[in-house]
Specification:
With 173 residues, the protein is α+β, with helices and mostly antiparallel strands. The protein contains three helices and nine strands; from the N terminus they run αβαββββββαββ. It has a four-stranded antiparallel sheet with strand order 6-4-3-7. Strands 1-8-9 form a three-stranded antiparallel sheet. It has a two-stranded antiparallel ribbon with strand order 2-5.
Length: 173
């Protein structure tokens, strides 16, 4: 006599989304979260931020009118922080093969689909490195003065219920 097959249970929310697409069709999109916390390696964020601060010129993002050091949070092919500093060697890679001006969030590297992170739209938001945060120091100072035992940079993203905008807050841990 054969044993009955063990029921299969989706192991992760992503597995469950695949199962739902099988049932509901390929156009099914899981609901976006209203808030999330993205985790980045602190040493890489610090390096990318210092690249922006050290650059003599800075690219402007959508809606920006003054060029100054910034990190851009981009959600598209994965989700990452990117320096807006213009360098003489923009396509340089580090020894480990990573782009020197980009740092991906843990678990959200190239080829991942971050559509469940605050909606399915691609996204570009700005973290100004030189202006004080509403609740504390400048982002660059937060990075530079992080405790020695800190290894992660946390980007907390929340939809602002008032105008649909995003509120970004940062911490190190």
């Amino acid at each position: 006599m054969t044993e009955p097959a063990a029921p299969t249970t989706p192991a992760t929310p992503e597995d469950f989304d695949v199962l739902l697409r099988d049932v509901l069709g390929e156009d099914h999109q899981p609901p976006a979260r209203r808030s999330c916390t993205l985790v980045f390696p602190l040493d890489r964020v610090r390096s990318v931020a210092e690249l922006a601060v050290a650059a003599r010129e800075h690219a402007l993002g959508p809606g920006e009118t003054d060029a100054r050091p910034r990190l851009w949070w981009i959600k598209g092919d994965g989700t990452f922080l990117m320096s807006n500093g213009i360098t003489a060697t923009p396509n340089t890679r580090d020894a480990d093969g990573s782009w020197h001006h980009i740092v991906y969030a843990d678990g959200w590297g190239p080829g991942t689909d971050p559509s469940t992170v605050l909606g399915s739209e691609d996204l570009h938001e700005t973290l100004d490195l030189t202006q004080p945060l509403p609740d504390g120091p400048r982002v660059i100072d937060l990075l530079r003065t992080a405790p020695d035992e800190a290894t992660r940079f946390l980007l907390h993203v929340t939809h602002d219920g008032e105008d649909g905008g995003l509120v970004l807050t940062t911490t190190v841990s």
